Amino acid sequence: MPRMLLDPAKEAVQVWLRCLLDWASRGFVPSVDTVSARLGRVLVVEDDLGISTQLVRGLIRAGYETGSVTTGSAALDWPAPDVVLLDLGLPDIDGVEVCRRLRTACDAAIIVVTARGEETDRVLALDEGADDYLVKPFGLNELLARIRAVLRRRGQITTSQVLHHGILTVDLRTHKVTVVDRNVALTPKEFAILECLASDPGRVVSRQEVLERAWDEHWYGPTKVLDVHMAALRRKLGTPGLIETVYGHGFRLADPESVPAQGPARPPAPASAGAAAGGPATAGHTGAAPVRARRPRRP
Predict the structure, then answer these.
(1) 269 burial class (0-12, 13-18, 19+ CB within 10 angstroms)?
(2) CATH number of 3-153: 3.20.20.70, 3.40.50.2300, 3.40.50.2000, 3.10.580.10?
(3) Among 73, 103, 202, 261, which residue is least crowded by beta carbons within 10 Å?
(4) Residue 152, SS3?
(5) What pLDDT, in 10s, does the model give residues 273-291?
(6) Does domain 161-258 have CATH number 3.40.30.10?
(7) Rounded to an integer, what distance in angstroms lies between the CA atom of residue 236 and that of residue 114?
(8) How many CB atoms are closer than 10 A to CB 155?
(9) Residue 26 is inside which H or E element, if any?
(10) Any idea what DSSP says for residue 260?
(11) What is the pLDDT of residues 43-87, one digit of tens each?
(12) Distance between CA atoms of 298 and 244, rounded to whole angstroms?
Protein backbone atom coordinates (compact mmCIF):
# COMPACT_ATOMS: atom_id res chain seq x y z
CA MET A 1 0.00 0.00 0.00
CA PRO A 2 1.55 3.39 -0.96
CA ARG A 3 2.67 5.56 1.94
CA MET A 4 1.06 8.59 0.31
CA LEU A 5 -2.30 7.50 1.70
CA LEU A 6 -1.11 8.46 5.17
CA ASP A 7 0.35 11.76 4.02
CA PRO A 8 -1.43 12.87 0.82
CA ALA A 9 -0.64 16.19 -0.79
CA LYS A 10 -3.57 18.27 -1.91
CA GLU A 11 -2.60 18.03 -5.56
CA ALA A 12 -2.54 14.23 -5.32
CA VAL A 13 -6.10 13.90 -4.00
CA GLN A 14 -7.62 13.62 -7.46
CA VAL A 15 -5.13 10.90 -8.38
CA TRP A 16 -5.98 8.57 -5.55
CA LEU A 17 -9.69 9.33 -5.77
CA ARG A 18 -9.57 7.74 -9.22
CA CYS A 19 -8.13 4.65 -7.58
CA LEU A 20 -10.91 4.51 -4.99
CA LEU A 21 -12.84 1.66 -6.60
CA ASP A 22 -9.74 -0.50 -6.81
CA TRP A 23 -8.86 0.16 -3.17
CA ALA A 24 -12.45 -0.48 -2.03
CA SER A 25 -12.39 -3.89 -3.70
CA ARG A 26 -9.32 -4.72 -1.61
CA GLY A 27 -10.92 -3.54 1.64
CA PHE A 28 -9.38 -0.05 1.82
CA VAL A 29 -11.61 2.91 2.66
CA PRO A 30 -9.29 5.95 2.62
CA SER A 31 -10.38 9.32 3.93
CA VAL A 32 -10.30 12.14 1.38
CA ASP A 33 -9.63 14.83 3.97
CA THR A 34 -6.05 16.05 3.85
CA VAL A 35 -4.76 16.99 7.26
CA SER A 36 -1.38 17.55 8.84
CA ALA A 37 0.34 14.93 10.96
CA ARG A 38 1.10 17.33 13.80
CA LEU A 39 -0.43 15.00 16.38
CA GLY A 40 0.19 11.59 14.83
CA ARG A 41 -1.09 9.05 12.31
CA VAL A 42 -4.09 6.90 13.26
CA LEU A 43 -5.38 3.83 11.44
CA VAL A 44 -9.01 2.84 12.07
CA VAL A 45 -9.67 -0.89 11.58
CA GLU A 46 -13.46 -1.20 11.59
CA ASP A 47 -15.81 -3.13 9.28
CA ASP A 48 -18.88 -1.05 10.21
CA LEU A 49 -18.74 1.89 7.79
CA GLY A 50 -21.10 3.98 9.94
CA ILE A 51 -18.83 3.73 12.98
CA SER A 52 -15.69 4.08 10.87
CA THR A 53 -16.93 7.28 9.23
CA GLN A 54 -17.74 8.87 12.58
CA LEU A 55 -14.34 7.92 14.00
CA VAL A 56 -12.43 9.23 10.98
CA ARG A 57 -14.35 12.52 11.02
CA GLY A 58 -13.75 13.06 14.72
CA LEU A 59 -10.05 12.20 14.51
CA ILE A 60 -9.46 14.51 11.55
CA ARG A 61 -11.20 17.35 13.36
CA ALA A 62 -8.95 16.69 16.34
CA GLY A 63 -5.87 17.09 14.13
CA TYR A 64 -4.80 13.48 13.52
CA GLU A 65 -3.82 12.14 10.11
CA THR A 66 -6.29 9.32 9.66
CA GLY A 67 -6.75 6.29 7.43
CA SER A 68 -9.39 3.57 7.54
CA VAL A 69 -9.61 -0.09 6.52
CA THR A 70 -12.35 -2.68 6.87
CA THR A 71 -10.39 -5.95 7.09
CA GLY A 72 -7.58 -7.41 9.14
CA SER A 73 -5.48 -8.25 6.09
CA ALA A 74 -5.65 -4.63 4.91
CA ALA A 75 -4.55 -3.46 8.35
CA LEU A 76 -1.53 -5.77 8.25
CA ASP A 77 -0.56 -4.42 4.81
CA TRP A 78 -0.84 -0.78 5.88
CA PRO A 79 2.37 1.21 6.54
CA ALA A 80 2.96 1.41 10.28
CA PRO A 81 0.96 4.27 11.85
CA ASP A 82 1.42 5.75 15.33
CA VAL A 83 -1.90 4.42 16.69
CA VAL A 84 -4.21 1.62 15.59
CA LEU A 85 -7.88 1.61 16.63
CA LEU A 86 -8.75 -2.07 16.27
CA ASP A 87 -12.18 -3.69 16.26
CA LEU A 88 -12.15 -7.36 17.19
CA GLY A 89 -15.08 -8.48 15.03
CA LEU A 90 -13.44 -8.32 11.61
CA PRO A 91 -14.79 -10.31 8.64
CA ASP A 92 -11.58 -12.10 7.61
CA ILE A 93 -9.23 -12.44 10.59
CA ASP A 94 -10.09 -12.40 14.29
CA GLY A 95 -9.14 -9.07 15.85
CA VAL A 96 -7.02 -10.67 18.57
CA GLU A 97 -4.91 -12.41 15.91
CA VAL A 98 -4.54 -9.09 14.06
CA CYS A 99 -3.43 -7.50 17.32
CA ARG A 100 -0.80 -10.19 17.85
CA ARG A 101 0.57 -9.83 14.30
CA LEU A 102 0.64 -6.03 14.49
CA ARG A 103 2.55 -6.15 17.75
CA THR A 104 5.11 -8.46 16.16
CA ALA A 105 5.44 -6.36 13.00
CA CYS A 106 5.54 -2.80 14.38
CA ASP A 107 5.64 -0.69 17.53
CA ALA A 108 2.39 1.20 16.91
CA ALA A 109 0.16 1.79 19.92
CA ILE A 110 -2.92 -0.46 19.69
CA ILE A 111 -6.24 0.53 21.24
CA VAL A 112 -8.94 -2.13 20.96
CA VAL A 113 -12.39 -0.61 20.35
CA THR A 114 -15.04 -3.30 20.47
CA ALA A 115 -18.44 -4.30 21.78
CA ARG A 116 -16.90 -7.27 23.60
CA GLY A 117 -16.86 -6.23 27.22
CA GLU A 118 -16.15 -9.47 29.05
CA GLU A 119 -13.08 -9.66 31.28
CA THR A 120 -11.72 -12.66 29.37
CA ASP A 121 -11.78 -10.68 26.11
CA ARG A 122 -9.99 -7.76 27.76
CA VAL A 123 -7.30 -9.96 29.28
CA LEU A 124 -6.73 -11.87 26.03
CA ALA A 125 -6.35 -8.71 23.91
CA LEU A 126 -4.05 -7.00 26.43
CA ASP A 127 -1.91 -10.13 26.71
CA GLU A 128 -1.57 -10.27 22.93
CA GLY A 129 -0.13 -6.77 22.78
CA ALA A 130 -2.95 -4.20 23.03
CA ASP A 131 -2.02 -1.03 24.88
CA ASP A 132 -5.58 -0.12 25.85
CA TYR A 133 -9.11 -1.49 25.62
CA LEU A 134 -12.27 0.57 25.07
CA VAL A 135 -15.78 -0.90 25.03
CA LYS A 136 -18.44 0.48 22.71
CA PRO A 137 -20.31 2.77 22.96
CA PHE A 138 -17.85 5.46 24.02
CA GLY A 139 -17.49 9.22 23.70
CA LEU A 140 -15.07 10.90 21.32
CA ASN A 141 -13.43 12.88 24.12
CA GLU A 142 -12.59 9.69 26.02
CA LEU A 143 -11.12 8.13 22.88
CA LEU A 144 -8.96 11.21 22.21
CA ALA A 145 -7.75 11.17 25.82
CA ARG A 146 -6.74 7.50 25.51
CA ILE A 147 -4.90 8.21 22.25
CA ARG A 148 -2.96 11.02 23.94
CA ALA A 149 -2.20 8.72 26.85
CA VAL A 150 -0.77 5.86 24.75
CA LEU A 151 1.30 8.30 22.68
CA ARG A 152 2.59 9.93 25.85
CA ARG A 153 3.60 6.56 27.27
CA ARG A 154 5.45 5.76 24.06
CA GLY A 155 7.22 9.12 24.07
CA GLN A 156 5.61 10.33 20.84
CA ILE A 157 4.05 13.54 22.16
CA THR A 158 6.01 16.35 20.52
CA THR A 159 6.26 20.09 20.89
CA SER A 160 3.56 20.37 18.23
CA GLN A 161 1.16 19.78 21.11
CA VAL A 162 1.69 23.44 21.96
CA LEU A 163 -0.41 25.66 19.71
CA HIS A 164 0.57 29.29 19.14
CA HIS A 165 -1.67 31.96 17.68
CA GLY A 166 -0.38 35.49 18.12
CA ILE A 167 -0.52 36.36 21.82
CA LEU A 168 -2.32 33.10 22.61
CA THR A 169 -0.54 29.85 23.59
CA VAL A 170 -2.44 26.58 24.22
CA ASP A 171 -0.62 23.53 25.60
CA LEU A 172 -2.75 20.47 24.73
CA ARG A 173 -0.80 18.14 27.03
CA THR A 174 -0.81 20.20 30.23
CA HIS A 175 -4.01 22.15 29.47
CA LYS A 176 -2.12 25.37 30.16
CA VAL A 177 -3.29 28.55 28.44
CA THR A 178 -1.43 31.85 28.37
CA VAL A 179 -2.25 35.23 26.85
CA VAL A 180 1.03 37.14 26.42
CA ASP A 181 2.68 36.08 29.72
CA ARG A 182 -0.51 35.75 31.77
CA ASN A 183 -1.78 32.30 32.77
CA VAL A 184 -5.49 31.79 32.17
CA ALA A 185 -7.34 29.20 34.27
CA LEU A 186 -10.12 27.50 32.28
CA THR A 187 -12.70 24.85 33.06
CA PRO A 188 -12.51 21.60 31.04
CA LYS A 189 -15.38 22.71 28.78
CA GLU A 190 -13.83 26.14 28.17
CA PHE A 191 -10.51 24.52 27.32
CA ALA A 192 -12.21 22.07 24.93
CA ILE A 193 -13.88 25.00 23.13
CA LEU A 194 -10.58 26.87 22.86
CA GLU A 195 -8.75 23.73 21.67
CA CYS A 196 -11.36 23.29 18.95
CA LEU A 197 -10.71 26.82 17.69
CA ALA A 198 -6.92 26.85 18.17
CA SER A 199 -6.33 23.52 16.41
CA ASP A 200 -7.14 25.24 13.10
CA PRO A 201 -6.94 29.01 13.70
CA GLY A 202 -8.75 31.16 11.19
CA ARG A 203 -11.16 28.42 10.12
CA VAL A 204 -14.80 29.04 10.93
CA VAL A 205 -15.96 26.28 13.30
CA SER A 206 -19.71 25.67 13.37
CA ARG A 207 -21.69 25.61 16.59
CA GLN A 208 -22.52 21.95 15.98
CA GLU A 209 -18.85 21.01 15.61
CA VAL A 210 -17.94 22.83 18.83
CA LEU A 211 -20.73 21.01 20.68
CA GLU A 212 -19.57 17.64 19.29
CA ARG A 213 -15.96 18.30 20.28
CA ALA A 214 -16.55 19.88 23.71
CA TRP A 215 -19.59 17.88 24.80
CA ASP A 216 -20.51 14.82 22.77
CA GLU A 217 -21.43 13.94 19.21
CA HIS A 218 -24.87 12.87 20.48
CA TRP A 219 -25.53 16.09 22.44
CA TYR A 220 -29.24 16.95 22.32
CA GLY A 221 -29.39 19.61 25.02
CA PRO A 222 -29.97 23.34 24.51
CA THR A 223 -27.30 25.05 22.41
CA LYS A 224 -27.52 28.12 24.65
CA VAL A 225 -25.11 26.31 26.98
CA LEU A 226 -22.41 26.98 24.38
CA ASP A 227 -23.12 30.71 24.47
CA VAL A 228 -22.72 30.73 28.26
CA HIS A 229 -19.34 28.96 28.12
CA MET A 230 -18.18 31.06 25.17
CA ALA A 231 -18.95 34.27 27.07
CA ALA A 232 -17.03 33.00 30.10
CA LEU A 233 -14.08 31.98 27.89
CA ARG A 234 -13.91 35.40 26.25
CA ARG A 235 -14.07 37.11 29.61
CA LYS A 236 -11.22 35.01 31.01
CA LEU A 237 -9.01 35.51 27.95
CA GLY A 238 -9.56 39.23 28.48
CA THR A 239 -8.63 40.22 24.93
CA PRO A 240 -11.42 41.81 22.90
CA GLY A 241 -11.77 40.36 19.44
CA LEU A 242 -9.60 37.26 19.99
CA ILE A 243 -12.61 34.99 19.36
CA GLU A 244 -14.80 36.24 16.53
CA THR A 245 -18.43 35.32 15.94
CA VAL A 246 -19.27 34.72 12.28
CA TYR A 247 -23.03 35.16 12.38
CA GLY A 248 -24.93 32.28 10.84
CA HIS A 249 -21.80 30.12 10.63
CA GLY A 250 -19.92 29.79 13.94
CA PHE A 251 -16.72 31.00 15.58
CA ARG A 252 -13.05 31.45 14.73
CA LEU A 253 -9.84 32.86 16.16
CA ALA A 254 -9.12 36.32 14.81
CA ASP A 255 -6.12 37.25 12.67
CA PRO A 256 -3.20 37.82 15.09
CA GLU A 257 -2.46 41.18 13.45
CA SER A 258 -5.93 42.44 14.39
CA VAL A 259 -5.55 41.53 18.08
CA PRO A 260 -3.79 44.03 20.39
CA ALA A 261 -0.22 42.86 20.96
CA GLN A 262 -0.17 44.12 24.53
CA GLY A 263 -2.87 41.69 25.52
CA PRO A 264 -5.67 42.43 27.98
CA ALA A 265 -5.90 45.91 29.44
CA ARG A 266 -4.94 46.23 33.07
CA PRO A 267 -7.37 47.85 35.55
CA PRO A 268 -6.61 51.49 36.50
CA ALA A 269 -4.51 52.10 39.61
CA PRO A 270 -6.58 52.90 42.74
CA ALA A 271 -6.65 56.46 44.05
CA SER A 272 -4.27 57.40 46.85
CA ALA A 273 -5.39 57.02 50.43
CA GLY A 274 -5.29 60.74 51.04
CA ALA A 275 -7.48 61.53 48.07
CA ALA A 276 -9.89 58.77 49.00
CA ALA A 277 -10.18 60.24 52.50
CA GLY A 278 -10.88 63.73 51.16
CA GLY A 279 -7.32 65.05 51.62
CA PRO A 280 -5.27 66.92 49.05
CA ALA A 281 -4.73 65.19 45.74
CA THR A 282 -1.27 63.89 44.95
CA ALA A 283 0.81 65.22 42.06
CA GLY A 284 -0.66 64.21 38.73
CA HIS A 285 -4.02 63.23 40.29
CA THR A 286 -7.06 64.90 38.88
CA GLY A 287 -9.56 65.22 41.71
CA ALA A 288 -12.79 67.15 42.23
CA ALA A 289 -12.78 70.96 42.15
CA PRO A 290 -11.83 72.55 45.52
CA VAL A 291 -14.67 73.80 47.76
CA ARG A 292 -14.70 77.60 48.04
CA ALA A 293 -15.01 79.28 51.44
CA ARG A 294 -18.41 80.78 52.17
CA ARG A 295 -18.62 84.55 52.54
CA PRO A 296 -19.73 85.82 55.95
CA ARG A 297 -23.23 87.29 56.08
CA ARG A 298 -23.69 91.04 56.59
CA PRO A 299 -25.17 92.00 59.93
Answers:
(1) exposed
(2) 3.40.50.2300
(3) 261
(4) helix
(5) 444 444 444 444 444 444 5
(6) no
(7) 40
(8) 7
(9) none
(10) -
(11) 999 999 999 999 999 999 888 889 999 999 999 999 889 999 999
(12) 68
